Every structure is written in C-alpha cells, then in structure tokens.
Amino acid sequence: MKRQMTGAKMIVQALIDQGVDTVFGYPGGAVLPIYDEVFQQNSIKHILVRHEQGAVHAAEGYARSTGKPGVALVTSGPGATNAVTGLTDALMDSIPIIVLTGQVPTFMIGSDAFQEADTVGITRPCTKHNWLVKETDKLSSVVHEAFHVATSGRPGPVLIDIPKDVQFATGIYTPKTTSTSHYQPQVKGDLEEITELVAAIEKAKRPVFYTGGGVINSGPAASQLLRELVEATGFPITSTLMGLGCYPASGDKWLGMLGMHGLYEANMAMHGCDLMINIGARFDDRITGVIDSFSPKSKKAHIDIDASSINKVIRVDIPILGDVAHVLEDLLKIWKSRGRKTNSEAVAKWWKQIEEWRSVDCLKFEQKGKVIKPQYALSRLEALTKDHDRYICTEVGQHQMWAAQYLGFEDPNRWMTSGGLGTMGYGFPASIGVQMAHPDATVINVAGEASWLMNMQEMGTAMQYNLPVKQFILNNERLGMVRQWQELLHGERYSQSWSESLPDFVKLAEAFGAKGILCSDPDDLDDAIMEMLNHDGPVIFDCLVEKHENCFPMIPSGKAHNEMLMGDADTQNAIDAKGSVLV
Amino acid sequence: MSALKIKKGATSHSAYNLRPNFSDVVERHTLAVLVENEPGVLARVIGLFSGRGYNIDSLTVAEVDHTGHLSRITIVTSGTPQVIEQIKAQLGRIISVHDVHDLTVEGASVERELAMFKVAGKGDHRVEALRLADIFRANVVDSTLESFIFEITGAPEKIDAFADLMRPLGLIEVARTGVAALSRGD
Questions:
Q1: Which residues in A lie closer than 8 A to residue B85 (C-beta atoms)?
Q2: % of chain B residues with pLDDT over 70
Q3: Rounded mean pLDDT of B126-143?
Q4: So which residues of A are the catalytic ones?
Q5: Which of A281, A357, A453, B5 qualifies as a FRET site for A222, CA 20 to 30 Å off?
Q6: Which of A361, A289, A355, A274 is nearest to A562 (CA)?
Q7: pTM
C-alpha cells in the first residue's frame, strides 16, 4: 500500500524504520516542520544539545559505544556549518553517523537567503557521501540509502540536506527494503592472499599483530575472532589508539598501545618484527614515525576494507581487501586446516626479547610530594573503576595519551576518543551520547581543562536529561601537549599555551546545578573519586595536577620506533631541523 | 551498460592493483570513470584531485547512458605508480562512482581529442596554413578574408603537433575538448 505523507513525517518515519531510538539536535527555521513531527511522536527521543557541534559528537559517542549509527538533526546555515567539525572527525575515525540538515526552500537556493549555506558543497569533502533532496518522493529512499552507505564498507558520516518546502510537501513513502544500491563493498578477502598470510604465520619468528579501529568497526565478532587467533598462535599484539579494547588489556599477549606515545615494548616489537600483521589499521603518521625507518626488516600483511588504505603510506607484501571478521574467519579456518602450525621455538625466543623490553617498565612514575601527578590520577581512576560497567571518553592532548596508557580496556566499544582529527571538545558531548545509549553505565570523560572548555555549554544538556556523566578534568592550567612541544622544539618559549582566568570549576558545576569536586592533594584523591562515582548526576571533577609534566614515552618527530624518548632526561636536542616541520 | 563495453562490478578486480610497483617514474594514465549522472558528481571527482594534490592533465565528461543515468568521465592524470594506484582507489571510494578503469594498463586503447584553431594571416601564411591543415586532415569550419577556424580530431600528440605548426602562421585562439578514450576490441 502506498503511503502519502509530508516530507517531514517521512524523515521521522524513515528513522523509526531504521531502528533509531535517539536523535541529537538543535532546532531552527529550516527544520521546523521536522521538529513539529518530532513533537507528535513518542518512538524517538530527541536530545536538545547546546551547540550543533555537540550534537554531532554526541551522535559519534552513541555510535562508537553501540556499533549502531548515530543521528543528528540541525538547521540550515550556521547549524550545518557548526556540524562540519563533527563530520570531519567522524570521517577520519570511520564513525557511522547520519546528519540531517534543513535547507532554505528550493526556490530560494542560490539567492543568499537568510541562513542559507551551500551545505552539500561545504560538507562534500568531510562526508562519505551527501545528498540534497529536492523532491519529496525521493526523500525516504535517500534516508534508507544514507543508512546503508554510512554503515557499509568502511563506515563514515553522511549528510542529507532537506529544503523546507520539501519537508512541507506531500509525497509517497518508500519503506525500508533490502538495499538495491550499487554500493556493495567487498567483504570477503581473497583466499589466495589469506593463504599466503597463513604460510607467513606458520614460518614467522618474530611476529606481531598490529590492530586498529577496523577491528572494532567490523563488529563484536571481529574482536572475538581476533582473540581466538591471538590465543591460538601465541603471537604478541599491539593496537592503535582507535583499536583499544579489541584485545583485552589484561591479556598476557597484550603489549599496550603503539605509536608516538605508545609503549616501549610495543614500538620495539614493531621495529624488530619479521612479520607484521596489520588488521584494520592504516599506518597513520602517529604510528609509523619516520617512514624510511619504519619496521625495516618485516614482511607486512594488511587487512583492510578500504582499498585506498592499502599501500597508501607503507608498501605491504600481503594485501587483503575485506572486512576484518570475514577475513579472520577464513584465516583461522585455513590455518587450522593446515595443522595449526607456528614456529613456537622462535616465537618463544621473541617473547623473551619482548619481556626484556617490558622490564624497562616505560610507564613507571613516582608520586611524591603534595602535587598530584596526572599518571597517578589516572592509575587511581583505573583502580577504582575497572570493575564498573565503564565507558571512557577523552578530549585531545596529554590527558588523552595518559588515558590510553594508564587505563585498561577489556572490550571493544568502551573507548571513545578523537584519533584522526584530534578534536579538542570532542569528549564531553561524546560522553553525553554514550550515556544516552547506556543509561546505567559509568561514563567518564577524561579531559584537560582547555579541551573541556571548548564544549562546556553541554553541561546544560547533561543537566536537562539528568545524564550522570563524570567530567574528570586533569587541570594543569596549560595546553599541556602544546607546552610539551614548545619545550622540545621552540626553546621553552611558551607562546599562548597557558590559560589565565580559568573558571572555578566547582562553582561552574554549581551554576549549572551539578556537583563540583576539587582535588589537589594525592592523599584525598581516592575519596574524591569515590565521591564522584557515588554521585547520581553529572559531576565536574577538577583535579589539579603537576603543571609541567611531559607525556612519555615519545617518538619525537622525524624519528623511528627504536629512537624513543623515555623521560625528561632524554629530551635535549631530541628533534632535529627536519623533524621540527612535522606535526 | 552494453553500449559501454564495461563489465559490471569489474572495479575491484581490474582497476586496483594491490601489488603495485613503487618506482619513482612519473607515468601518464588515462582513466575512464563511470559515474552516476547526478548534481555534484563532477565536483566530487575534481574535489578529490584538488584536495589530495593529484594532477589533472585533461578531463572530459558527458552523459553516455541516458536510461541508466550514467556519465563517463575521462581523466588524463600523471603520477608515480603508487600515486596512480591511490587515485584509482580514492575514485573507487566515491559512492557515485560505479567503475574505474585504467585504460593505460588494461590493454590497448584509442584516445581522441577534438580541437579548433583560429589562425589569422594574409598571403603566404594563409596558403601555408591551408596546406598544413590538409596534411593533418583538419577541416575549415569558418573563414573570413583574414582568418580560418580549423577543426581537427586525433590523438593529443597530433593536435599538439598541429598547434606547433600553426603558431608561427598566426594562431590566435585554441579550444580543445580534452581526451575521450575507449579500450580496443571487446
């Protein structure tokens, strides 16, 4: 039966048919018809954010923590342009979100109308795909196609721009059907290539699994298969920032995160391995260090669903185009059928070498005196929350790296951080999205005071919906990572990297009607964290920490994995002129 | 699709070479990109090239399948083999792109371009221009007492050569369509 309805109703109906339960948004003139439909239904919860960037990050947090696409609804013009940072963030980190924007009516497009912007033009490079829908009859099928595109292949953000007259007009609703889209990315890997990887696994003397966000995006089955593969082969495993949780941090094969601020043993294993198995990672520059000296002696295999990721940065020997779960399933099948062989003697020797690197204990620190070290704060947060049903978000900077180093993730989808784009201001709205999806979980945003201020307006959202998100702010009154680079690269000239006139965070919390906790004494820290956890409602935790602490280990710009800085003593002339142009 | 002689779904097998060579030699490749004929699709393709710093030596686009809403974009680009592989993979990622074919590596192909040359002159120059046009099988499509417009079709090298010859004879304006290309045989 053909169903006639308005474009605005179609949007809501299509979202319901797609299984959407939550939309993050902010109304405005060009989306009023859709908001009118939102008002007249009870299937979808609408969360009113305080800034459109917050809506998109919240949708990202929702998506990353559930594996389902997140949805944001904003108005034309400034609503759309404010969404751009979130869209770019989602594109860089392959997060499936659908952003719906209002547009001026079709007959006014191009006339520089009030709150008009060329939204599809502006967002073309920061979406996986976008649509301007000029006919109401096409609206519902575009929404269904948008969900298909956002979630298939390498996931990513999509945007639908909907002129106001299209929302008012009546058309025929197309129900959700199995996709007839020509966009059907290949998920099965080439069996010959997979067999070649199996042969390499059988022979490897110094293997390492290098995993990334692709494992998490592939779904829970991928993490399960990865765990099976790691246990069965006994090979060491490291992960990028985006992949934390795909293998449990408590697992004995776990080397910790790799990369610029990765663990010594992880980076040394990457440098010294003879077989590198990249599963769903993309050889990002934060991972590789200087390309010419990246893992010089290894054979490299790369499993990725995106053909453009393969051989983009690092030349690989065994390319496998496909979805992680599908490829790992075939890989395990073939490896088992060939007798589950590994070179266990050589691998045992490799582990002995790794244990030596591990014994360096690169994350050790000493908490002495009356000033809280940020590492200590995160160690205590880890100790006091690891048994919780816990989700961690972060902002961007030193605190983010310390969180990745000192917090342990046992499962996928528990760690929400802005990896590729490095968006300060991501974490707080993301924590709101996570808490919406997991109302009973402990959701903590590990933040720096500077990042957190970038989207602090979302306190209003947290209060309105009584979302008990915990804002754990490591306050050093500095842009810590900028300060660290100025110390290493710019002769300790700290240009604009400290914040004067910071707010009193406790009073700020109280101004919103939330709870604020100030902690400056290491002896009070445990009690203060418990007070935060036990409070049923949003908390701003102002943790005053050592102001000049640097984040180590660190691969300085222009250096290789085996040239890490382990502490302040190593930093003299650590970066040469060639390295200093890198970011 | 039959009119285009391009097999459906060929993209993942034919255009991408996941085991490319990594030489530093810059190569010229002609790519045939079959796209959905919809607003903004050309901007997606051009934006990819400008955003990622790739070269466009020539680009032509026109609808080739009205019922299937498909347009064919022919791009001549240059880069090292690794860059060419990246360009193809990045093009393949665009949702509106149905197929990417690298005519330079997928067997023999034919390339043609149409150009118009306005040549102004008197006396011997005018006669010589006509004589050369005849040799190049260029047609006169407009004439005044002091100028000709020649129309010429051929491979880009032939058109370059004709332009070189016309320059001293009073060439004042050129319009070129860019390359259209098809692979040979079935």
A1: 311
A2: 88
A3: 97
A4: 52, 114-115, 164, 481
A5: A357
A6: A289
A7: 0.94
